[in-house]
Design goal:
This protein is α/β, with parallel strands linked by helices. Helices cover 54% and strands 17% of the residues. A hairpin with a 2-residue loop joins β5 and β6.
Amino acid sequence: MAENPKKVVIDTNVLVSAIVYGGNPRKILSQLSAREISAVTSAILLAELTDVLAKKFNFNRDDILLIERQIKRHFILVYPQKTVDVLPDNNPDNRVLEVASEGDCDYIITGDKELLRLKFWNSIEILTASEFYEKLYMEKNN
C-alpha cells in the first residue's frame, strides 16, 4: 500500500472501459484495490455510470447493484459544493471537475477529448488511462 496514494477521479468512460473491456482502465482499478491510488466519485457520476451500463451495455439490475456496491466500498464519495463552468454550454464533464476539486484530487483519468485538451485544471493533471497507468508504473519503479 502506498503511504500517500494519489487521489484520482476516474471518469465514467474509463470506468465503463474497465468494466466492459479491461485493458489499462482495469489495471487502474486493480491499483485502487491494492490501495496504490485512491478514487473519488459523486452520486451524479455514479448515476451516469449505472445509466450507461444499463442503456448501452444492457447490464441487468443485479449486476449494476453489485458494481454500485463495489464502487461505494472502494471509492470516496464526495458531494461537490461549488459549481464549475469551465467547459461551455453546461457540459456534463464539468461535474468531473467539480468532483476532482471537492475531492482534492491529483489526477483526472478520462477519455473525454474536451477534458484532455485542458491538460491541467487547478493543479489537477488530466490524463488518459494509458498515460496515467504509465506514469503510475514509472513512479512505482523509480
